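Quarterly update from the structural biology core.
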Amino acid sequence: MSLFHNRLKDIHNQLVNKQLKVSELVNESFDRIQKVDSKVKAFLTLDEENARTSAAKLDELLEHRSERGLLFGLPAGIKDNIVTEGLRTTCASQFLSNFDPIYDATVMKKLKAAQSVTIGKINMDEFAMGGSNENSSFHPTHNPWNTEYVPGGSSGGSAAAVAADEVYFALGSDTGGSIRQPAAYCGVVGLKPTYGLVSRFGLVAFASSLDQIGPITKNVEDNAYVLQTIAGYDVMDSTSANVDIPDYLSALTGDIKGLKIGVPKEYLGEGIDPKVKESIIKALNVLEGLGAEWEEVSLPHTEYAVATYYLLASSEASSNLARFDGVRYGERTENPDNLLDVYLKSRSEGFGQEVKRRIMLGTYSLSSGYYDAYYLKAQKVRTLIKQDFDKVFEKFDVVIGPTAPTTAFKLGSQIDDPLTMYLNDICTIPVSLAGVPAISVPCGFADGLPVGLQIIGKAFDESTVLRVAHAYEQSTEFHQKRPQL
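Predicted structure, tokenized:
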């Protein structure tokens, strides 16, 4: 059995008791990548020399020091839109194919302080725009459960790498569901924290009012450990929330007696695969058996969420990506005729089709004469969606539904149908617009592919979200299943 099938706490104890070396963990990670990544294609860049050097130094520390953090020595994969000092960061775009950052994102500083080992940078949809990982300008990532299927997006590489035992944990980023949806498709645990809980400094911006970094792991307890490490106020991020960080591990009591769960009828209605719905109902029955109570509620503005999201996210993307002009950032076209030619050709050659589509949509909605009709109206609808959640949370502790309306779909089956692709995020987008936390945990299989259960909480109440997810997980065995590669 792979070392990576063990809980984080168990591996940590083996390290502390000198039954295991960090170099053995790192060797296992690279051996596994060597064995399976030609099929999964989760990685864009490996940092093998530095990882092995770090492992040797940490093994030396094991011999001479007694105090170590719980992420000590654990191999990690990092989504390629998180800036890493001296390690290539491409956002899976040709535009940044030669970009080697000179500083670390705040989350990277925290992981390094916790002495985890970065194995490499992980594939994603270009600039985090996509729901299948097929929009990477390098190559698509494949779902470890069936390599003919997508792993989800845009953090599909991170979810696939964890599911395939290539790294112990990974960081992803979630704008409209980009951690939770791939976590559901790949049968792992993915958490989108409350907006502002984890610093975005060093995360290459897609949609600044929505982007959030979060952990992807094999189980809820490990997820809580990683969140504990990366959460917290950061003066370098003007949207960082200055709130107290609770002890997330102490919340994992297994006790959810009397917990009140709201189940939105909009999340189990039209468009939800019957097999997915069946898994969600069974999960609710498990939670009911643990002493929770659930009843149907309504989030009436859910039907407007996808349109609202794509107007707002695309508008912010068109602004954020204006900096990639071939002068300040990114590849520059060769032999331009003049300065305007530099801008036009560099952006035309550097961006992929999906990025161009969203820049055009966002530019249009922000343009003179259309701002009030589209962007401003979308902001007003966003407020209504948030108020839907506020109202439900007056009576309920959490909201539960599916993470995605279906299981993973076949590679290439939706790539020419962007509207259908966008609807795969219909259950995660409202949560992102409201800025509240949510986690996806495995809750079953349909036709051999994993199904994800989404647990949504009040702002900054990750403790309750993790407590419910952990209680459910401990009563089921879905998180222990492993894909055969």
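The mean pLDDT is 95.
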